[in-house]
Amino acid sequence: MTPAIGPRPLSSLLARGVGFLILWVVLIGTTPINLLIGLAAAAAATWASGLLWPAHGGIDALGLLRFVLRFLPQSIVAGVDVARRAFAPHPMLQPGLVACRTSLPAGTARRAMCALMSLQPGKLPVAVDPDGTLHIHCLDQREPIKEQTAADEAAFCGMLRDGAGHG
Amino acid sequence: MAPADAFTLLFVTAGAILFLAGTLGLLRFPDTLSRLHALSKADNLGLGLIVIGLLPQCDSVTAGLKLVCVWLLAQLSAATASQLIAGAVYRRKSGP
């Protein structure tokens, strides 16, 4: 469960801190008192991200773009799919659990994949066994959940720089 | 009506319909895990549509970025919360 923590270059930490500060400025504003609190918040966020983010968990920019271009239309399909079922006179549901295999090791990457998968059509990962069996709740068991899960995992792994997301 | 206002009206209405769908799903779907699907997916798309609809009404780029950040943070929290609730429900069902 504990992510691999290693020494990080100062430039990487600084870049991360600046990113958090920009997020603060966008959300809260630039008055001096807010900026002062923002500096403390950005420092705390950088420290926390150093603990939580795996040491070798790099994100590939092109892979991230490919993932987002796939994720956004899928999110629309997911929302419309739920809306269609909710508005139907008799909700067209055949809910149940489907077991799939995941090749991602336990850790941040696998938890992130499960969280992102829960925003994709018809699937909600609920638990992962120690042997890598993923239990997915689906709204309609007649759909090809295993194939969809494998495609989601492949898209997610394409975003990871080392391809397997250690820790 | 200005095109920007028509755009806003269209997207915010679509977003509101998605929120209605999420609430209907919460009331009509048969079990907790199915209801989580409704909340996490329909509401996120609804919020996204409302954010897109409000973008032309922003008076600065920062205000637009703020809306997009709010949407992204809401997506992140919805995904994380639904994972935690789903895990708790699954553990309770499968027993100690």
Structure report:
With 167 residues, chain A is mostly helical. Chain A has two domains: 10-52; 61-157, no CATH class. Chain A is 54% helix and 11% strand. A three-stranded antiparallel sheet of chain A has the order 1-3-2. By secondary structure, chain B is an all-alpha fold. Chain B has three helices and no strands. The A-B interface holds A 23, 25-27, 75-76, 78-83, 85-87, 91, 93, 95, 111, 114-116, 118-119, 121-122, 124-127, 135, 137, 139 and B 17-18, 21-22, 24-25, 28-31, 33-34, 36-38, 40-42, 44-46, 48, 62, 65-66, 69-70, 75-76, 78-80, 82-83, 86-87, 89-91.
Record the SSE blueprint.
The complex is a heterodimer of chains A (167) and B (96).
Chain A: H1 10-28, H2 32-52, H3 61-87, E1 96-101, H4 108-117, E2 123-128, E3 133-138, H5 145-157
Antiparallel strand pairs in A: 1-3, 2-3
Chain B: H1 3-28, H2 32-54, H3 61-94
Helix pairs in contact in B: 1-2, 2-3
Output the number of helix runs of chain A.
Answer: 5
Beta-strand content bin of chain A: 5-15%
Largest interface: A-B, 33 and 39 residues
Alpha-carbon distance between the termini of chain A? Answer: 8 Å
Shape field of chain B: elongated
DSSP strand count of chain A: 3
Give structural attributes.
heterodimer; A: 167 residues; mainly alpha; 2 domains; three-stranded antiparallel β-sheet; 5 helices; disordered N terminus; B: 96 residues; 86% helix
In summary, what is this structure?
The complex is a heterodimer of chains A (167) and B (96). By secondary structure, chain A is mainly alpha-helical. Chain A has helices at residues 10-28, 32-52, 61-87, 108-117, 145-157; strands at residues 96-101, 123-128, 133-138.
